[in-house]
Amino acid sequence: MNKDHFKLGMRRLAAGVSLITTSNGGQRHGLVATAVNSVTADPPTLLVCINKNASAHAHVEQAGILCVNILADAHEDVAARFSSPVDREKRFDHGEWKNIVTGAPALVNSLVSFDCEVRQVVPYQSHTIFLAEIVGVELWAESFNPLLYLDGAYRLLADKQQAFSVAS
Known about the structure:
Layout (H helix, E strand, L loop, with lengths): L2 H8 L4 E2 L1 E7 L2 E7 L2 E6 L2 E8 L5 H7 L1 E6 L5 H8 L13 E3 L5 E3 L4 E13 L2 E12 L8 E4 L2 E4 L3 H8 L1
Antiparallel strand pairs: 1-11, 2-3, 2-6, 4-5, 5-10, 6-9, 7-8, 9-10, 11-12
């Protein structure tokens, strides 16, 4: 298998953008992830894949808690801030942040925040798979316009009426 072909192929899979946050030793940490999926509803559990080289990886693993904040289309600037190594210590300076249950920061006005406790950690090659049980949830926004990632760029979901009229 050609690794470059794999990467090019996966760039064609549109994915929702999530901001994964944690609190470890009184410090907040976060990163942007697209590898987030539901596992089961009983108990409610998410799968979160994080690259071992990510600055927040060790903090998530040590703290054993994380919050999955599903970003809306209005959060492209938040995603850019958490994707860049520049001013890493200032990532949480903007926006409103609250704790739900675990102490991991939840982004108020994201589409939804899932507050989780890590139940299982599975190392696999360059990444770690975190199986995280949801212990709290906040449905902050009434808007359902998610931020998407496709072909190396953030994208917006077209309005159904607009998409239909363009196709007609």
